[in-house]
Amino acid sequence: MSLAAKFFRWHRWIGYLVALQVLAWILGGLLFAWLPFQDWIKCGEVMDKPRQPLPANWASKIGALPSDKGPLLSIQSLATAQGPAIKLHYEKEDLLLSAAGGKLGEASQASVSQFARSIYKGDGVLSEVLKIKEGPRRLGMVHEFAARKNIWVARFDDKLQSRFYFDGHSGELLAARNEAWVLYDFFWRLHVMDYAEGEDFNNSLLRGTSIIAMLLTLTGFALSFFALRRSWRRRYK
User: Contact 151/134 with Cβ under 8 angstroms?
Assistant: First the structure.
């Protein structure tokens, strides 16, 4: 068997091994390049992300800070369905207080609905607000929002079916999702070959497949070389 025939055979079998994954890489790359990231994937087209400046007199309003939670690491001002709030990040846990003083009350369906409408700027209508145990799984492996349990979801009937997720207690905005985000996340998981979390882009499966894909490319270059050499010989002999 000639060297060119061997390279052809290697190229064919390597191609069988990685064909679907290479196709997923190509389709994912096209999707990532063409979908508007900030407007669609991040919902910037339909959402004004709430910003809440830290009140100047916040310390006097919330009173004495607890001393049994370890060192205070940071302070964050939040907009919630219950109004402005202060989140104190301690070493042991977080403490959420109303910026007006006292503990923050529990968000209701009405307060979450009002908050969702206030940050929505799209052309859809708020279709429903529900409290759910966890975010849904889409397309078999996409967890729409799996970081929290017992959360509020506000759904809008716009072209991308926008969904806002809020903390089940405070009503703090946690995430914004839509059908474009689901498609993007699905192809991202295929792209990095992490089908569980979609975050590990240095896993063994991806590295191994990348090496095999490189061999496919190298054998393709070798076949191109042999084809050019044959063409040159036929022309000049």
Answer: yes
